[in-house]
Amino acid sequence: MNTPVTPEQQAEIDNLRESPRQTLRVISEGMEQHLYTAHPVLDHGFVRVVDYMGDDAAICQAARVSYGRGTKSVQNDEGLIRYLMRHWHSTPFEMCEVKLHVKLPVFVARQWIRHRTANVNEYSARYSILDREFYIPAPENLAAQSSVNKQGRSEVLEGDEAARVLDLLRQDAMRSYDHYEDMLSQDGQQGLARELARMNLPANIYTQWYWKVDLHNLFHFLRLRADAHAQYEIRAYADALCDIVADWVPAAFGAFRDYRMDAVSLSAGAVSVLKRRLAGETVAQEDSGMSMREWREFQEIWG
After folding, report:
1. What is the pLDDT of residues 100-131, one digit of tens each?
2. Among residues 202, 217, 240, which one ends one of the domains?
3. Is residue 1 situated within a structural domain?
4. Of 29, 32, 211, 238, which is most buried, counting CB atoms within 10 Å of its CB?
5. What digits encode the pLDDT tens for the residues 204-218?
6. What span, in angstroms and rounded, lies between the C-alpha atoms of 162 and 69?
């Protein structure tokens, strides 16, 4: 695996980490350990924390609308955070923010950008030339199309078929980048403008951006993208972010895990079926009021 950061970026990171500054603002000791550290994701990608604001106490402070940390104990703060999460009181979580530097394949970025409740500034291929870096899946992540889920994968490709697909991915990526370079203005040729030459590049080329988001909307992102049903590539980034957030706001992340990530949401029909089952009734899909797909999802959880 190649190093995910350039020598220039690593020099900047090293310089920043070696020059700590005193501050009067509240800090999170867990998050301080992540500042400016590039956490590798996929083959060439990374996530790193550039800046952040707030901690668990900031959530409670906003909920109580008080000054400072007050007289409440850590245990009381955790109880309040769990109450806020349990009852969907989201505004206090918006008091915490994080700014991330992310390097990711373009096709992952196009999924990611659908979360519009954030501030984004992306590396511009209109002004700069993109690096020759492409996401090539590891063999264990090459899978056929699912026959029951139009958005999902099925069995992992093996042997000659896996090798054939990997060769095509590499060849197409390299060929398109060769043509990209050929189209740019160089060697005395007039060439094509960068903003036009980039249109020939594949969706697995890497881009970079700064992404700033509050904790409430970051939790929404993680609930969807760290889910087992999410596409593996974006889930890899979400999993890395989960580790960071758990160190940043441990009480809030614990509540989020319990009441969002690992929780189950029930429809009125599902509640009715559960009550009937608890009363000793045998309930089949035909008299449940659920569609076949709803029933299958219900059975996956409740049997």
Report:
1. 999 999 999 999 999 999 999 998 888 888 89
2. 202
3. no
4. 211
5. 999 999 999 999 999
6. 56
- Does the annotation flag 220 for ligand binding? yes
Q: What is the pTM of this model?
A: 0.86
Distance of CA 162 to the CA centre of its chain: 27
Q: Do 256 and 280 belong together in one domain?
A: no
Answer whether residue 294 is part of any domain: yes
Apex 106 CA angle, 101 and 107, nearest 5: 125
What are the start-end ranges of the H helices in 138-266? Answer: 159-183, 194-197, 215-225, 232-248, 250-256
In whole angstroms, give the CA distance from residue 24 to residue 272: 54
Q: With cut-offs at 50, 70 and 90, classify the pLDDT of residue 7.
A: confident
Average pLDDT, the chain: 88
The total of structural domains in the chain comes to 3
To the question of whether residue 125 is assigned a binding role by annotation, the answer is yes
pLDDT of residue 188 exceeding 80? no
* 124 annotated ligand-binding residue: yes
Q: Does 87 belong to an annotated binding site?
A: no
Instruction: Provide, rounded to the nearest whole percent, the portion of the chain with pLDDT above 90.
Output: 58
Give the residue numbers spanning the domain of 70: 7-135+204-261
Report DSSP state, residue 151: T
Which of 17, 69, 170, 225 is flagged as catalytic? 225
* Residue 136 to residue 45: CA distance in whole angstroms: 11
* 150 and 120 fall within a common domain: no
Q: Is residue 198 marked as binding? A: yes
Average of per-residue pLDDT across 159-163:
86
If asked whether residues 142 and 173 sit together in one domain, one would say yes
Active site residue 82: no
Q: Are residues 232 and 254 in the same domain?
A: yes
Evaluate whether residue 2 is within a structural domain.
Answer: no
